[in-house]
Amino acid sequence: MDITFEHVTHVYGRKTPFEKLALDDVTIRIPSGSFTSIIGHTGSGKSTLVQHINGLLKPSEGKITVGNFVIHAHEKKKDFKELRKQVGFVFQYPEHQLFEETIIKDVCFGPMNFGISDAESTKRAEESLQLVGLPASFWHRSPFELSGGQMRRVAIAGVLAVRPQVIILDEPTAGLDPKGREEILSLFDDLHARLKLTIIMVTHNMSDAANYSDQVIVMDGGKLLLAGSPKHVFLQEDLLRKVGLDIPETMLFLNKVLDKAGSKDKIPAFTVDEAADAVIRILNGVKDHV
Amino acid sequence: MFNLVIGQYVPLDSYVHHLDPRSKLIGVFLFVVIVFLANNWLTNILMILFCFAGILLSKMQLSYIYRGLRSILLIVLLTFVLNLFLASGGTTLFSWGWFHVTTGGLTQSVFIAVRIMVIIVVTTLLTLTTSPIEITDGMESLLNPLKKIKMPVHEFALMMSISLRFIPTLLEETEKIIKAQAARGSDFTTGSLRGRIKAIVPLLVPLFVGAFKRAEDLAMAMEARGYHGDDGRTKLHQLKWSWRDSLLISALVLLALLLIFARN
Amino acid sequence: MEKIIEVSDLSYRYSEEQPYVLKNINFTVNKGEWLSIVGHNGSGKSTLAKCLNGLILPQRGTVNVGGFMTSDEEKIWEIRRLVGMVFQNPDNQFVGATVQDDVAFGMENHGLSREIMAERLSEALRLVRMDQFAKSEPHRLSGGQKQRVAIAGIVALQPLIIIMDESTSMLDPEGRKEIIQTVRALNRDRHLTVISITHDLEEAIHSDRLLVMNDGELIREGKPHDLFKSTALLRKIGLDLPFAIKMRNVLRAKGVPLSDTALFQEELVDELWTLHSSM
Ligand SMILES: Nc1ncnc2c1ncn2[C@@H]1O[C@H](COP(=O)(O)OP(=O)(O)OP(=O)(O)O)[C@@H](O)[C@H]1O
Ligand SMILES: Nc1ncnc2c1ncn2[C@@H]1O[C@H](COP(=O)(O)OP(=O)(O)OP(=O)(O)O)[C@@H](O)[C@H]1O
Ligand SMILES: [Mg+2]
Ligand SMILES: [Mg+2]
């Protein structure tokens, strides 16, 4: 399921004193099976952008294609159910949407809404809960008795149980402790690798964007600023800084080492391991020159 | 959407804006009583003139006032028509079956429509020129004597101002939850009535859970900042009664006297 | 050094049926220092923080703040004035209808006169750089701005201590930076004692002292440099490590003979350099 945006514009509160141009002529392509991160300053339009992909928001201008599904501006009311079955959406603080008496019932909510039978829904719910690593002893308890991190997993299982082809994550790790963050991110990385799901993640964390994605999209003031591989994007440090963004901490560290060596080079290394190798190379390189 | 709910306070620099909320509240109350004194053309015209004077002094655009009126225009029209047919007296202007429109009925209907309209205009003017927090402060101050008989006036005022403060937050939250459940295939807009009622549960439960969590957090935060009820508490906003306020009340008393004098 | 808080033998449980969530805690806080508290979710950090301004009274042990006991009912409001607290969720602690009403809320509670309030209000707002927004309503502010308003509300009470309970965890990186800078300035210029509960180790390593909590116990206490010498324990209780330490460990595994002193990235770079030039 390739996703394309063609000249998409979105205006909030049209013809009111609060009118706000949140997306401005955006054209992008997100290939099927890719892991795409979207970064940008607060208010740059990231959430607005991704909410178009499953029809939660409709474009004011332009056209969006998701697989065979086409959304035009200025078209009549449309049934988005089929689209939403294919495109799962994990909101920021998804645990705020839990409501059922038991965890398993809450996870079944999605599949049942999409017309999947009770038995099949339960089966899928159990699978998803296993996938997010919540032990079976919890399944028949109330979702409100869990810790924050566990609640978030239940909410994510609720999205996985529909078995979407595309998953959108809007700042999925906000407010979690480092361990919880790590676990959630590797879960999606794994889903991406094993099940070939298309993952689209909005994030404020440059290291996460660099480490997990094939493509990074940079938004600024509702416009598309940059798109490309993490390497391509994060080598443009000056441009990123101009729009209030940073580079991954590994690169920040390498900059310090390179500075000391009197070099103006930029090295795109995103894991600590890659960065360590680069450090050793830099040190040896300096020695060779002396 | 927000503006509809929180009232439509328009911050401007005008005579009416600078009035003490207490005098405005008393004024509106008096006005609503006085309105019932009007019972002929002269007195009704006096009421209308008074309203226009208020609007002029508030520097408010007529379109804002109209927006306040628009929602109840239908009700005014309905009462007008009803009265037209029901009230009697004077000469018959027009008959249709056993409906008779009489001159008495016509004037009567016009008076009642005017009465409703001026009341709405004056209350709209109050909310347009007074922020919700000022209204709350004014009410608290006016109801102060009730504290003597152990009425929780301060608590009531605080509750009101906090509710007002959280309305936009809760609206935002509602929108988020609707979107999130819609993404999980829930549908609030189509289907049978029973289906729709069922679809509201996934919206209401998270909304209530969230509101309770908020209330708990807020109570904790207020306590941490030293809140312990009304005693020994001071206020940043002090209401100041000035000559303008006395002028407003005098004008209303004068209007009342005029009406008493001019009515038949 | 002058002690400003003394906690001795503190134990607390939320109810009789539940286990103790704080067990035999002892520590002191020095005047003017920046103290960070780290620990995994549910280790008892927030509960401990609430003991420090008397929102929670421990079943056993005592908490002494600036010479007052939190168990002393007469002094509790004075303690709450001395100890300001910024919570996690920016929305749920904004009481006033506008920025200035919110900053005034605490002062009103403590019965300050209008003249003093007006004076401190404008000073506090200037300090957190929110003076342009005095009349703004909360739903027109960003999360970081709301947290700065919360800080202004505390500063206006002229406290001795400010406790931040994960006050930056719901903010974007920029909002986070704003808050840290604001509090740093208060700590430096006004000698306000800061107690910061955080999961962000890059922030915690810059504090004067660190407390490590695990399952209701205070298991480590010390200067960041000492604490991060041995990382095995911290790893075991599920804490993340600061970037420079992760880097140091990987470099060591790759055969670079680094010591275990560097904690900041700059230190690590310097050490790499000396090491390298002496090779
Ligand atoms: N429901 C809405 N009504 C009106 N304006 C809105 C609405 N939602 C967002 N906006 C505005 O549109 C712009 C883009 O908002 P959006 O939420 O897409 O940004 P974002 O990049 O996701 O920001 P953040 O990093 O803070 O989540 C902002 O200026 C925002 O204030
Ligand atoms: N109001 C409460 N009633 C009962 N138990 C509670 C309450 N608040 C916290 N607890 C329990 O007390 C323990 C310590 O909680 P606390 O909130 O102090 O942890 P924390 O270290 O602040 O965690 P986090 O990093 O998630 O904020 C936890 O096991 C928690 O479940
Ligand atoms: Mg967003
Ligand atoms: Mg906590």
TrEMBL record, chain A:
Pfam family membership, one: ABC_tran
Signal peptide: none
One Gene Ontology MF term: ATP binding
Record key words, sorted: ATP-binding, Cell membrane, Membrane, Nucleotide-binding, Translocase, Transport
Subcellular location: Cell membrane
Function noted in UniProt: ATP-binding (A) component of a common energy-coupling factor (ECF) ABC-transporter complex.
Domain ABC transporter: 3-246
Protein name: Energy-coupling factor transporter ATP-binding protein EcfA2
Subunit and partners: Forms a stable energy-coupling factor (ECF) transporter complex composed of 2 membrane-embedded substrate-binding proteins (S component), 2 ATP-binding proteins (A component) and 2 transmembrane proteins (T component).
Keyword Membrane: yes
InterPro entries: AAA+_ATPase, ABC_transporter-like_ATP-bd, ABC_transporter-like_CS, ABC_transpr_CbiO/EcfA_su, ECF_ABC_transporter_ATP-bd, EcfA2, P-loop_NTPase
Membrane topology (UniProt): Peripheral membrane protein
First-listed, main subcellular location of the protein, grouped into a coarse class: membrane
SUPFAM superfamilies on file: P-loop containing nucleoside triphosphate hydrolases
Family statement drawn from the similarity comment of this UniProt entry: Belongs to the ABC transporter superfamily. Energy-coupling factor EcfA family.
EC number: 7.-.-.-
CDD domains linked: ABC_cobalt_CbiO_domain1
UniProtKB/TrEMBL annotation, chain C:
Keywords: ATP-binding, Cell membrane, Membrane, Nucleotide-binding, Translocase, Transport
Domain ABC transporter: 5-240
SUPFAM superfamilies to which the protein is assigned, alphabetical: P-loop containing nucleoside triphosphate hydrolases (SSF52540)
Gene Ontology molecular function: ATP binding
Provenance organism: Sporolactobacillus shoreicorticis
Protein's recorded name: Energy-coupling factor ABC transporter ATP-binding protein
Entry-linked SMART domains: AAA (SM00382)
Lipid bilayer topology: Peripheral membrane protein
